[in-house]
Amino acid sequence: MIKSKSGELLVYAAILCLAGCAGNGYVVTMNKICTSAVSKPEAMVSAEKVLAEMHFSIEKSDVNAGYIKTGPLSGAQTLEFWRADSVGSFNRAEADLQTIRRTIELGITDGNQPGQVCVNCIAITERLSMPQDLTASGQSQIVMSGRQRSVRKLGERKADLTWVKLGRDEQLETEILKRIDKKLTAAK
């Protein structure tokens, strides 16, 4: 009787875990917010603070153009619970299995109504692509040719490494905009 109950509990626990991993937590995603009672420079400062809190480094910031671009940030893995740049269980698992990076671009413009400021967010995701001979054996490869034996390191083949665009990360865009909106609302 005890074994069957514990077996049932394990099955229920497995189902709950799978159900939790299947959902991404975002039913509706967004890539733009509009708010009033803040100026464009205030929105820029708030946006930069949010990106810094999420560990993104600002590569370019132009208040006149209303443009912010970050440098690429490698994806947070499952055990990096303090980082918020891999939103959702799929993105965390993907960062665990592959080398992923994300770059953020924010556009801050005047809205359709007087005194309104809009923030548009684009998060581009890329995956590191390595040549087949490097991926087969990991970081280094033993090369046999005749009587010579040498080890080629990953650093020797950096020219062969490329970043493949995977598209937009709408979940991250939504998370960034929610944080910016929260910061702008608190500033009012």
**Structural class of the helices, strands and pairings?**
alpha+beta
Count the DSSP helices: 5
Order of helices and strands: HEHEEEHEEHEEEH
CATH architecture: 2-Layer Sandwich
Largest sheet: 7 strands, antiparallel
Radius of gyration: 22 Å
The count of DSSP E runs of length 2 or more, i.e. the number of strands, is 9
Task: Kindly report the CATH topology.
Answer: Alpha-D-Glucose-1,6-Bisphosphate, Chain A, domain 4
Helix content: 25-40%
Poorly predicted parts? 18-24
* CATH domain class name: Alpha Beta
Instruction: State the separation between the terminal residues, measured CA to CA.
Output: 61 Å
**What is the residue-averaged pLDDT?**
75
**Shape assignment:** globular
Strand content: 25-35%
Number of separate domains: 1
Please explain how this structure is put together.
The chain is globular and about 55 Å long. The protein has a single domain, classed as Alpha-D-Glucose-1,6-Bisphosphate, Chain A, domain 4. The strands form 2 sheets. Strands 1, 2, 3, 4, 5, 6 and 9 form a 7-stranded antiparallel sheet that branches. Strands 7-8 form a two-stranded antiparallel sheet. The chain is built from 5 helices and 9 strands. Helix 2 crosses helix 5. Strand 2 and strand 3 form a beta hairpin. It has helices spanning 2-22, 40-53, 89-97, 132-137, 170-187, and strands at 32-36, 58-62, 67-70, 73-74, 100-110, 116-129, 140-145, 148-153, 162-168. The protein is 36% helix and 32% strand. With 188 residues, it is α+β, with helices and mostly antiparallel strands.
